[in-house]
Design goal:
two-stranded antiparallel ribbon, 200 residues, single chain
Length: 200
């Protein structure tokens, strides 16, 4: 079970302000290099999709950029392969996703309740293929990661969040998505029907 986000002290302040929209011609340069290609493009191209859709991810953090480049297509392919047998791996992944989704909802609710001072952040965009329902859930978590990334920056500027609190929060956020990637790696037969990962 994922750890509960660290409590954040609420300050007397005006209502929170939503962050600016990602698209802005005069936005401050983020310093993130655009992704020219995904790794493992061929792998996802050979996948028989359970769903057929695309989504655009807007991101401003190094974590999301690197995950898209290194791990997204791998995870999507593994989700599709695991679905063929409908075994314990899908059950384990679903549980992992539910833990992450609950944690992110709680963390974002807490940050939304404190004062923030938005400023412009440059976002890059990447179109991804969604070949499985779990891929769609992964996209949503990546979007929530960057929402939390931006909101915590705005809270730092408003002095309603300390830098150490923010670092702890973002490390936890990254670990939850990393757990999904790690769980996608083992072969299907490494999982018991109840979703337990079996020893090698």
């Amino acid at each position: 079970m994922a750890a509960t986000p660290e409590p954040i002290t609420e300050h007397d302040s005006p209502p929170p302000v939503d962050p600016p929209s990602p698209a802005s011609n005069d936005a401050v340069v983020s310093g993130l290099k655009p992704i020219s290609r995904f790794s493992s493009d061929g792998r996802i191209g050979r996948t028989i999709p359970e769903t057929s859709a695309v989504a655009t991810i807007s991101y401003c953090s190094v974590f999301v950029r690197d995950f898209l480049q290194r791990d997204y297509n791998f995870c999507s392919t593994k989700f599709s392969v695991a679905s063929v047998r409908r075994g314990g791996k899908i059950r384990a992944l679903d549980e992992c996703f539910r833990n992450a989704e609950q944690w992110y909802s709680s963390a974002i609710d807490r940050i939304s309740a404190i004062n923030r001072r938005p400023f412009e952040i440059a976002f890059d965009e990447q179109v991804v293929e969604i070949t499985h329902p779990l891929s769609g859930r992964l996209v949503r978590l990546l979007n929530q990661h960057d929402r939390l990334f931006a909101y915590t920056l705005f809270a730092i500027r408003a002095r309603t969040l300390q830098s150490g609190q923010r670092e702890t929060l973002m490390i936890s956020a990254g670990k939850l998505i990393g757990q999904i990637h790690a769980l996608a790696m083992p072969d299907n037969d490494r999982f018991a029907p109840d979703g337990t990962l079996l020893p090698e």
